[in-house]
Amino acid sequence: MMKKILSVISVLLLLLSATLSQATVCAANPIDLNRSCSLNIEYGYDGKFFEGLTVCTYKIADVYENGTYELTEPFKSLSVNIYGITTQAEWKVVASTLASYIAADSIDPTYKMTTDENGCVAFKNISAGMYLTLEVQTVSDETVITFENFITAVPSPKDEEEHLYDVYARPKYSSYTPTKKELEHKIVKQWKDEGDIHNRPQSVEVDILRNGELYSTQILSSENNWSYSWNYEDDGSKWQAVERNISDDYHVTVESDKTRITITNSCFKAPENPPQTNDINTTHPYVILMSFSGILLMIMALFLKRS
Amino acid sequence: MRKIITKILFALGIILISLSVLVVVHSYVAQKKANKEIPQIVSSLYDLMPETHGGFLDDRSDYSMPSVELNKKDYMGVIEIPLYHITLPFKANWDSKDAETIPCRYYGSIYNGSLIIGASESNIRCSDVISIGDDITVTDMTGAMFSYTVSDIIITDIIEAEALTNENADLTLFVKDALSNEYTIIFCNL
């Protein structure tokens, strides 16, 4: 029964997270900031629950009565945007970005607990806010099981009027078995600036982390096509990266999968009107014109010569 | 005097014809070079993007498309027309000169169905045989692959922004035919 309730609440949470707009939780009644809240997380799947997992959660934003959020320090000083986000996929990217900086800067968690025999942790009497719970990895029969990072609003909107002050979540999981073969890893810099190539920095410095420890610092620039690759054995290591000294004009996001890390710098540009098409140039008309003129001149020359 | 005029006209005629030949050769060599580079660019773009996966439209807050810089040029993805074995990169910004050799994004975003890409006949030679119902895919630099079906084709002499922005189309391609100087506008839907 509890499992069913948790499943329903997890789905509800996902849906509610998707409705977070302009870093705002949409429920009509104001949030009671004096009321204590709780965040309850279950780590398990297929009837298997994981005891002894260390779960770290970070309060990344304060909430106001009207449901508006504002990033807290030290996250406030990072060039990460949480405003205007409308989809679950975008929140996932925010979670991944903040998790990378947490690892790189060794930021202490707001709360830390270990899962009980039911694979559950319960952060009780916590203040209202937005919480990031970090990815948790465990190994079972050589298979690496990963429970993803996730961001939860506490309290979460229960319906159009009310808020849910005791929040339940079950993070999404994935599993894979490391091959122990050498894999090529790559870090790639992308830009979201409408191709404004001249406004970009000459180069950027990125720290690459392996299992939370600094592995390498690299400079990405147009000289290396803003990318860097390296080989490493597929041993289940977790790879992350952060960009340092980001230009004030840009926000940063970090996304990573098994072998690829993408750091994107976004710079807001108002949508422009369609440009002038300026007829796509082709040389054919000029060639034809020149050829005809040439032939005509030669005919005229021949005509003059004969007459 | 007549002899001198005859010689001048003859010389001018020869110069103009020689210039035409030079322009044709130069254009041919430039196009050959670009066509040779295209597979390498496509390969590099696929190498720089994450594993490809199905793309879909959503209500995301930021519709801007990411680009990568490759050899100091900005690219936004790869366009494919499987039926004609065409695979082409497309540049992030519109430049009518660049569009002679490599397709360029003219306007819009793949994420809200407003993307318009311009190209020349040297890249998409099949604009005269492309037909309604053909499949076209566009893969962005996040690896999201969007699959489209050609829904309408218009042939026009003059290309203007108004003619290209069709609210019913999720993707618009326009291709210039070098010989007829006409544009083929291909409207596609997801």
Folded structure, characterized:
The complex is a heterodimer of chains A (307) and B (190). Chain A has two domains: 2-176, Immunoglobulins (Immunoglobulin-like), CATH 2.60.40.10; 182-266, Sandwich (Immunoglobulin-like), CATH 2.60.40.1140. In chain A, 19% of the residues lie in helices and 39% in strands. Chain A is built from three helices and 22 strands. In chain A, strands 4, 5, 6, 8 and 11 form a five-stranded antiparallel β-sheet that branches. In chain A, strands 19-16-22-21 form a four-stranded mixed β-sheet. Chain A has a three-stranded mixed β-sheet with strand order 7-1-14. Chain B is an alpha+beta fold. Chain B has one domain: Sortase (Sortase, Chain: A, Beta Barrel), CATH 2.40.260. Chain B has two helices and ten strands; from the N terminus they run H-E-E-E-E-E-E-E-E-H-E-E. Chain B has helices spanning 2-48, 161-164; strands spanning 53-54, 68-70, 73-81, 86-91, 104-107, 115-120, 135-140, 144-156, 171-176, 183-189. In chain B, strands 1, 2, 3, 4, 5, 6, 7, 8, 9 and 10 form a ten-stranded mixed β-sheet that branches. In chain B, a hairpin with a 7-residue loop joins strand 5 (104-107) and strand 6 (115-120). The longest helix of chain B has 47 residues, at 2-48. Chains A and B meet through strand 16, strand 22 and helix 3 of A and helix 1, strand 2 and strand 6 of B.
Compact overview of the structure:
The complex is a heterodimer of chains A (307) and B (190). Chain A is α+β, with helices and mostly antiparallel strands and 307 residues long.
| Strand content range of chain B | 25-35%
Cα radius of gyration of chain A in angstroms: 28 Å
Helix percent of chain B reads: 25-40%
What is the CATH homologous superfamily assignment of the largest domain in chain A?
Immunoglobulins
User: pLDDT under 50 segments of chain A (min length 5)?
Assistant: 1-22
The CATH class of the largest domain in chain A is identified as Mainly Beta
Most extensive chain interface and residues per partner: A-B, 56 and 63 residues
